[in-house]
Task: structure prediction
Amino acid sequence: MAKTGFIGLGAMGQPMAANLGRQGHDLFVYDIFQHRTPPLRDLGATVAGSVAEVAEQAGVVVTMVPDSPEVEAVVLGPGGILDSGTAGQLVMDMSTIAPETTDRVAAALHEAGRAFVDAPVGRLVTHAEAGTSLFMVGAADTDLERVRPLLEAMGDTILHCGGPGAGIRSKLVNNFLVVGINQMNAEALALAQGFGLDLATILKVIGGTTASNGQLSVNWPNKVLKGDLSPGFRLALAHKDVSLAVESARKMGIPVFAGAVAREGCAMGMATDGYADNDFSGIADAVAGLANLPPPRLA
Result:
């Protein structure tokens, strides 16, 4: 089996790389924070000391880093994958970044005789841990088949959205909607509390109508509604993703009024001490606090 590089071992990257290791893939891993690497070493991965070392060893390099500047540095920067890899190598970026950055990286790799796939991740950290992530893939058909065994080791749903760049654009549409739903959920539960309604009952009402949504039925009961604000998806990243979507819409002349409100809602939550690094469902606590209401919790 060819060597696979994995760069970026954060909340999503680490369990995804771990699933590759458990499936027998020969891994070279790297993260700027070396304390994240021991669990992968324990699964048999080789821990590299730099991006260049990964690029020199791996036929396919997966990147899962926070934002556009990090992707550009890892792929295009000095000592990056473009500098250190070889012709025929494939780079699969799974980060959520600006579409323009994806296009720039794809073009640079293509010019250098490398292949590129963008495959951002849907669903939550718990799904990454269980190997049931969803992938929105932008790739040529032949390149998708090349990375399919990796995706199948990390998830259970692979959606081919189009050529390179289609994956990240699909992810921004998805997260644009998710973050907006999150904001509406927070305001709806504050309204219910203001009315003096029983939280468990109003959740049954919502769940029994077309107002139901996955955040309120799946994520929130396991996070904010039970008082767990540990980050599955940090509020700061939710703000980053919805901002990318709103900025892309602005450039295309597409009105996204609700999206702009959701972005400012995230910014408001981030202005609350410690909330930027909380799970993004914690926006419910921030909204409740503004209304002088207690945090919404299920017994």
User: Anything to note?
Assistant: Residues 166-194 form the longest helix (29 residues).
